[in-house]
Amino acid sequence: MSAPIIVGTDGSEPATAAVRWAAEEAARRNLPLCILHIREPWSYGTVYYPAPGVLDELAEAGEQLLAGAAEIAREGHPDLEVQTRLKYGRIAETLREEASKGTELVVGHRGLGGFTGLLLGAVGLRVAGHAHSPVIVVRGDTTGTQGEVSVGIDPAEDAHAVLTYAFTAAASRGDRLRIVYGWQIPPMYLEAGYFPRMDEIEQTASSSLKLIADEWRRHFPEVEVIEETVREHPVRALADASAHADLVVVGSSNHSGLGSISHGLIHHAACPVAVISTRT
Question: What is the reported pTM?
Answer without folding.
Answer: 0.87
